[in-house]
Design a protein that fits this description.
This protein has helices spanning about 10-25, 30-45, 55-70, 75-95, 95-100, 105-110, 120, 125-135, 140-145, 150-160, 165-170. It is mainly alpha-helical. The mean pLDDT is about 80.
Length: about 180
């Protein structure tokens, strides 16, 4: 029979044990902590064998840029990823990279905008915009949207054709259609 108590855990196990202790101190709930550990594990896998302790703030920024461009994560998941890596660098590794990353910038960028927010809505088709407005509720314009759906879609299309800003679509009177 072998004595397992004399076997030292491998470095990866010790690393994640230490990371989990940092999560407890953070305090991150246990269920979320597992996801934080998965986010860190995914981060490490993308580093292609480079030692994470030797990465710079710029390397971390590049990782955040990469995953934000892939657009596979919801805003809260991206926020969780940022927090997981912040805990890794600021609480566990305590390297210069912690000071070099603008964490506030990344946390702000993780906030999801409403689908009809002016900076994201310009990517929607007029039909999609109209549908979203209809779904938003029984506001004072809901009857107008229902009664004049086709006109509002044509109006939005014309505004976009003329190159006006999205806010113009929200505020202007409809152009004269010929």
């Amino acid at each position: 029979m072998s004595d397992t108590s004399s076997i030292a855990p491998d470095p990866a196990s010790r690393f994640f044990d230490n990371y989990l202790k940092c999560l407890i101190n953070a305090p991150i709930p246990e269920k979320q902590g597992r996801w934080h550990a998965k986010r860190v594990e995914a981060f490490i896998k993308t580093q292609n064998g480079h030692k994470i302790k030797g990465l710079s703030g710029s390397d971390i920024d590049q990782y955040f840029e990469m995953i934000s461009r892939q657009n596979h994560l919801a805003g809260w998941q991206f926020h969780q990823c940022i927090d997981a890596i912040r805990i890794l660098y600021c609480d566990l590794l305590k390297t210069q990279a912690c000071q070099d990353v603008n964490w506030d910038y990344w946390f702000d960028s993780a906030k999801q905008l409403e689908i009809d927010h002016p900076t994201t809505a310009r990517q929607l088709t007029p039909e999609e915009m109209s549908y979203i407005k209809e779904r938003k509720g029984d506001g004072p314009l809901s009857k107008v949207r229902t009664s004049h759906h086709d006109l509002l879609v044509r109006f939005t299309t014309e505004i976009r054709r003329r190159g006006y800003a999205y806010r113009t679509v929200q505020n202007e009177h409809p152009p004269q259609f010929t």
